[in-house]
């Protein structure tokens, strides 16, 4: 049994609480949020466990072995550094940090602390993304000609994520919040990303995040990457991560759908029920117990941050 403490009890913190609750080998033993009412309510829902408003008290709780950090990006650095100083295992939300410098320091400190350090990049544990990777490996699209990420948001912030930071320029925006998942997938599946050129559409209000991006980059062999997105537009939300190849097209759409087709065919939905990807919590348990595990660590987070910060350059 692994005893977990959680810092940050907002949208994603609650989502992970319900996943931890369903798992027999982990137990949430204490929670923390700077909003006392939320900390109290969440602790009550978990059977009246201790709660805090100050992250250091949670870290120091003697039962806590692993801390899950689900606060907004600009608070990741200080909290994670305190966890590492206490030599406790850590699961951190993406993006790793709110700047490249912070991310570098965190990745270094995590390595030196000798603890388990993992990122929550859920695509790595999703069926559609696993099938996407498998088909690419089987040369479904043939030789890759172009990789494209399209992000369309009729409304940003999205209806379910109306908080005070995700629409702000300092630590929000869809490039940071959504784009980073696909940056990490690109690095994992295709390797290095170079020659990044970015053009952001920014509102006049300097406090508000981008409303558009057109960026280009290249894989190591020169294969072009196009990253484009717009918010505050007509239509439906659409996130498409598409590999165009010499023989076909394969698209990971809206996180959990796949569509593809060979040259000359219509694009059609691709099924993936037979795929059983790994599960983040199982992998965390394995890692804490000293077994091999499929985790995406702070080095992965740092590499994604390197690309992310170039895309976010004003
Ligand atoms: N992995 C994913 O798929 C995914 C999805 C959504 C969000 N996220 C990431 O998760 C993090 C949180 O996002 P969210 O949507 O849940 O945000 P949120 O604003 O809904 O929740 C954040 C919570 O953290 C609390 N908080 C802020 N600073 C704190 C501090 N110093 N100490 C204690 N509590 C503090 C806030 O009061 C709030 O309750 C962000 O980094 C975001 O990028 C990841």
TrEMBL record:
Residues 2-120 form the Gfo/Idh/MocA-like oxidoreductase N-terminal domain. Pfam families: GFO_IDH_MocA, GFO_IDH_MocA_C3. Keywords: Oxidoreductase. It comes from the Bacteria. The keyword Lipid biosynthesis does not apply. InterPro entries: Gfo/Idh/MocA-like_OxRdtase_N, Gfo/Idh/MocA_oxidrdct_glycsds, GFO_IDH_MocA-like_dom, NAD(P)-bd_dom_sf. Residues 131-250 form the GFO/IDH/MocA-like oxidoreductase domain. PANTHER family: BCDNA.GH03377. This is Gfo/Idh/MocA family protein. It comes from Cytobacillus mangrovibacter.
């Amino acid at each position: 049994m692994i005893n977990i403490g959680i810092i940050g009890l907002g949208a994603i913190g609650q989502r992970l609480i319900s996943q931890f609750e369903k798992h027999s080998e982990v137990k949430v033993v204490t929670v923390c949020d700077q909003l006392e009412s939320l900390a109290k309510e969440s602790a009550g829902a978990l059977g009246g466990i201790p709660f805090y408003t100050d992250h250091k008290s949670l870290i120091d709780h003697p039962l806590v072995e692993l801390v899950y950090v689900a606060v907004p990006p600009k608070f990741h650095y200080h909290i994670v550094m305190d966890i590492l100083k206490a030599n406790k295992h850590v699961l951190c939300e993406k993006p790793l940090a709110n700047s490249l410098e912070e991310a570098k320091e965190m990745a270094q400190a995590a390595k030196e602390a000798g603890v388990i350090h993992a990122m929550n990049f859920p695509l790595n544990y999703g069926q559609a993304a696993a099938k996407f990777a498998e088909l690419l490996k089987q040369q479904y699209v043939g030789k890759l000609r172009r990789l494209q990420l399209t992000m369309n948001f009729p409304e940003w912030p999205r209806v379910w994520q109306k908080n005070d930071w995700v629409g702000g320029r300092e630590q929000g925006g869809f490039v940071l919040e959504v784009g980073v998942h696909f940056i990490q997938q690109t690095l994992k599946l295709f390797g290095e990303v170079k020659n990044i050129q970015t053009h952001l559409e920014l509102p006049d209000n300097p406090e508000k995040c981008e409303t558009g991006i057109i960026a280009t980059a290249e894989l190591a062999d020169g294969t072009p990457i196009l990253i484009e997105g717009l918010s505050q537009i007509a239509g439906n939300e659409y996130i498409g991560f598409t590999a165009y190849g010499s023989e076909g097209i394969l698209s990971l759409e809206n996180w959990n759908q796949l569509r593809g087709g060979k040259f000359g065919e219509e694009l059609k939905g691709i099924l993936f029920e037979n795929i059983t990807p790994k599960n983040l919590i199982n992998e965390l348990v394995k890692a804490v117990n000293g077994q091999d595990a499929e985790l995406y660590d702070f080095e992965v987070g740092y590499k994604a941050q390197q690309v992310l910060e170039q895309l976010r350059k004003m």
